[in-house]
Amino acid sequence: GCTVQLGIMDPTECYGQADYVTALDLGAFDAIGWNLNFDIMNHADYHKTTASIYTDYLAHAVPEPASWTLMLSGFGLTGGMMRRRRILFAR
């Protein structure tokens, strides 16, 4: 089942299960042709959890649509005021 953890290449690993990625796992990926740029000999103690890898590369928060609307309205009003000022000073 889902309790045995033999590494990220374990075929019995279940979806959503937290696991550890070690230098040996990365070495196996390199051996099967992924050509990773990782020096296993200098980083033999490398290990990360799958959860920490997910949070390291997680996309940052996207602003709410109301925030976008407010920002674009502000740009529009600023541009309109700049254009209106140019017309007034040109007379």
List keywords for this structure.
91 residues, mainly alpha, two-stranded antiparallel ribbon, 3 helices, 2 strands
Describe the structure.
The model has no long low-confidence stretch (mean pLDDT about 75). This protein folds into two domains: about 1-60, no CATH class; about 60-90. The protein has a two-stranded antiparallel sheet. The chain has about 90 residues and is mainly alpha-helical. It is about 50% helix and about 5% strand.
Average pLDDT across residues?
76
Whole-number tally of structural domains = 2
Q: Classify the helix fraction into a percent range.
A: 40-55%
What is the SS-derived class? mainly alpha
Strand content: 5-15%
Ends distance: 81 Å
**Can you summarize the main beta sheet?**
2 strands, antiparallel
